[in-house]
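Objective 1b: paired records.
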Amino acid sequence: MNVIQSRFGEIEYDPQNVLTFPAGLIGFETLRQFIVMPSKKEGPLFWIQSVEDPQVAFVLTDPTNFFLTYQVAPDEQERKKLGIEEEDDCLVITVVTVHPDRKVTLNLAAPILFAPKTNRALQVILEGTQFSTQTPLPEIGA
């Protein structure tokens, strides 16, 4: 077990469970290793914490909790970077932003592809999409 100090306090983690971003995240390309924080609350949101920079953490979610038809599939190059074959599972997750006015948006224009088989993840930019980096949550009942 390894230990890091973070904004959440001291965190103990198993290096075998580290989530690796071979290309980093957009704007954080030098940070490649993250751990998934255990959730203390029920709900669709969770945190990933950088192992290399204890001040960097992101809130993530499965976008299909809010956008039922949202789908992204990795292409051949992305599967290579993730170390998976076409038949292997690949989950799509998105970065959540809570703005000062408490408005919540999802970055649907640059989702994260996660391969559970290899514990690798890759943030991709969707070209020509109607989605935005700040897609607001849909209105309830809309």
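Objective 1b, second protein:
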Amino acid sequence: MNNQTERDSMQKIWLITGISSGLGKALAEAVIQSGDIVVGTFRNSAQTEAFNAVHSRSNHFAVTMDITNSEEIRAVWHIIRAKYPQIDVLVNNAGVGFVGAIEEASMDEVRRVFEANVFGTLLLTQIALPTFRAQKSGHIVQISSHGGIKAFPGFGVYNASKFALEGFSEALAAELAPLGVKLSIIEPGPFRTNFAGASLLESAQILDDYAATAGAFRKRMKEVVHGNQEGDPQKAATAIVELVNTSAVTGSVPLRLPLGKTALATISAKIESVKNDLEAARTVAEGVVY
């Protein structure tokens, strides 16, 4: 496909990072099934080649990119833009998990998480924004987590990275609204993906004093049996595709989309906790102003 190739006016081009497994893979499959075009990224070049071999007769395309490598991100964007005249949907899915108490985490470990979940995602988003602004259309989909709303002992570094993602995304949504560009934050709970497997990082340091809190959480994550999680990644992918398609028709989109019963419970508990703290502090809060 090149700049001269016409495409169906209803066919969207999706750029999805991290499509090798989990929700990213399910979403890429759902987008292809819907009739839209997928441009996906893999960290492994062999996976990139395999994807392109399977889709050699279609407009789907994959590139190799490490979301923590800023030069690769810039180079890949130029490759994609040379091949495709327009990007309709950007899905920032690539990222990593991390378990460990706050004190247990080294600064190098923290930086590794933030490079993937915040800085790489922010950079790719910034690079894509001039295209969306020029088009006066487009949809940015940020894959966050219910852990981007509520923090858990043993998950604090990951929580912090997703809180950061949610923070800049919420501001960006408001900045883009007058320009015709939409943004959605997806907040899944536990899903049947490999999140708790090879893609989950953990602190090298383990301190006994945190055994009952962060240690217990680390233990639970290691005991997760893949396939037993409540969430179905195919159904989640379908929900995201429907969200994007519906917003393209209605012109409106919710800022946040929680996915799964656990996500609903977690986020509801956080809202209730904040509400209780607000009410408890009301007299003090009102008493510190002129």
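The first strand starts at residue 13 and ends at 16. The CA atoms of residues 92 and 142 lie 5 Å apart.
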